[in-house]
Amino acid sequence: MAQIKKLLIANRGEIARRIIRTCRQQGIATVAVYSEADATLPHVREADQAVCLGPAPARESYLVIDKVIAAAKDTGADAIHPGYGFLSENTAFAAACENAGIIFVGPNARAIEVMGDKAAARQLMATSGVPVLPGFDEEGASDDDLVRASEQVGFPLLIKAVAGGGGKGMRVVNSASEFTEALAAARREASGAFGDDRVLLERYLPTARHVEVQVFADNHGNAVHLFERDCSVQRRHQKIIEEAPAPGLDEATREAFGHAAVQAAKAIDYRGAGTVEFLYGPDGQFYFMEMNTRLQVEHPVTEMITGEDLVAWQLAVAAGEPLSKAQGHITRHGHAMEVRLYAENPEQGFLPSSGLLSHLRWPHEVARVDAGYENGDRVDDHYDPMIAKLICHGASRNEARQKLITALEALELTGIHHNAPFLHRVLNDDAFAGGELDTRLLEHRPQLLEANGTDPALLALAASQVFAANNASSSPWQSLQGWRPLGRRFRQTLLQVDGDLVTVREQDGCAAVGDQQAPLSATLTDHDITLHWGNLGLRARHARKGDHTLLLFVAGQAHAVTLNPSRESARHDEEAGFIAPMSGTIVALHVSAGDTVAAGDAVITLEAMKMEHTLRATVPGTVHDFHVAAGDSVSEGTLLVEFEETADD
Hints:
Domain ATP-grasp: 122-319
Strand content: 25-35%
CATH architecture of the largest domain: 2-Layer Sandwich
Structural class: alpha+beta
Number of domains: 5
Shape: elongated
Helix content: 25-40%
Domain Biotin carboxylation: 3-447
Protein name: Acetyl-CoA carboxylase, biotin carboxylase
Domain Lipoyl-binding: 573-644
Number of helices: 17
CATH superfamily of the largest domain: ATP-grasp fold, B domain
Distance between the termini: 93 Å
Cofactor: biotin
Oligomer: single chain
CATH topology of the largest domain: D-amino Acid Aminotransferase, Chain A, domain 1
C-alpha cells in the first residue's frame, strides 16, 4: 500500500479547506493551487505550500492539466485530490495522474468515462438490473431521429446532455410543438459547456424527488453505501438544500435504494467515493439518473448522520487500504440538513453577484460551516457562486431544520447579494417543513422567490436601542439623541433606515414612529436584540460599523441604519455639514450650492454595500458647498457637504 505523504488539492474555496482539515488530522502535508484572482483566499493561506496556476479564468488555470501535474511534481506531491467540479470527472486528468505516477484520489479513468457519458451509463445500468426511465439514448442520433423518438418516449420529456452536469444542456419539453426549439437550445448549451452537443431523451416526472445514495468501494472487492440523501429542493436544476436521510421513506425502500446504488458501483468496478442519483416517483418507483464519480458538495450531511469522515475514507482507499467498515457496521443517527449559500440574487432570477465581503461573521456557534471565504475576501465572478455551506444535525428532521433557521438568522454578511433570506423562507415554508418535496417545489410555491420586507419602524426602533446602549455619555447635551431640558423627558432619534429617514420618539416605556405608538421593550446582548413594540416583534443580529452606522441582520438580510450625519457633524465639527456614514460611492447630488432646504429634503445619496443611502436635512438650512461630485469614492467620516442650519427668529 502506498502511503500518501503530500497531497495537492486541485481545487479552490470551501472544498479545498475541507480537504486540508482532514489532511492536518492525518499528518499529510498539503499543496494548494490558485489563480491570480484567488491569491489571498483562505485555502491558499492554510495549505503548507501554494502554487499559482495562472490568470483568473479557469480555462487558463484550474482546468489546465499540464499546469496541475507540473505543480504536483515541483512540490513533491505524491497524490492529487480533485475535489468536485473543475477536473474531478475528467478522464484525461485521471489518466495524466496515472501516467505521472501520482495517486489520483478518485476512480480510474474508465469508470469516469463510462459514467460521464449519460447515454452509456443508462445502457450499462439497464443491463445490470438497475431501473432506468423510459427514454432514447442511441449513439449519433440526428435531430430527425430525436424528433421521431420523442413521440415514442412521450411528453413531458427531458432533453439531457450526454456529457452534462450542473443542470446545463437540460430542457423540459411538454409538447411536440416545443421540441425542435428546445432541442436546438439544449444542443447549443451542451456544446458551449462541454464541447459535446450530444443529447438523450428521458421521460420527465413532474413531481419526482431527487434521492441519491453515497457509495464507497475499494481495491479489494468491497462496496458499501452510507445511506441516502434527499436533494429535491433545486433552482435551475441545481441543488440548494440537501438532507439525510431522505424523509418519508420506509426501511424497505431505503434498503432498495442502497442495494441498487451498490449494484451500480459494482457494475463498473468502481473505486473510491461516488454518488448514485435517482428520481423517485410519487408511486414509490425509482429510476437511475446518473452517477457522480467524485465527492459531492452535500457530503457533510452524510458525515453528520454516520459520524464518518468521507475525505479520510477517500484517502485510505486511494492509498490501497480496504474499507474500514462493512455494510452492517455503518449506522446512522438523527437527521442532518445543509443549505448552499450562494452569491446571487434570487429576486433577479438568481443572477450571480460578486464583490468584497465587507462584513462577514459565520454562525460557527450553531452550525458546521464549510466556507471558502472569510471577512474581507472578494468573491470573483469567474467561478461558481457558492461561498459556503451551513450544516446542522438534530435528533429529528424538524430539529435539524430549526437549527438551520437559527444559523441563517445568526449569519452576518454584506457586500454582495446572497440567497440567505431566500433559504430562510424555504426552511420556514409549510410544504418544506411538512416534507412535501419534489424537484419543482419553487415552481409550485413562487411566493418563496418574493422578498419579505421588514417594517422600517421596527428596524429604526431596534437601532435606536443599540445606539442608546452604546452611547458612553450620560449627558443630554453630548447624547446622540434629542433630549428636552424642560417638561417631561423624552428621547428623539433621527435615523436613516436603508436610505429612508425615520424619527423615533421614546417616552415612559412607549415609542412612536410616525403615527404609530405602542409600548416598547427590548432585550439586548453583544450581538442580538429582541424587541417587542405593541403586537409587533423583531429579532435581529447587530454590528456597529464606526460611530454612526449600524448593521441589522434579520433572517439573513442586512439592513444599514445610520444616525443622521448632519446632526452628528453639527455637534462635533466647527463647520456644520454632512459626514459620510460609511465608505462608498457618491451616486447623486440632489441640490446645488446656495440652495435652501427644508427638514426631510434629500441632499446627497451614497451607495455602499449594494444599497443606496440618502442623506437628508433634519432641520431647515442652506447648503454652502459640496466637497464631492457624483461618482467619487469616499471613506467613512469624510465631510461631504457644508451646511448651515437656519437660525430661529
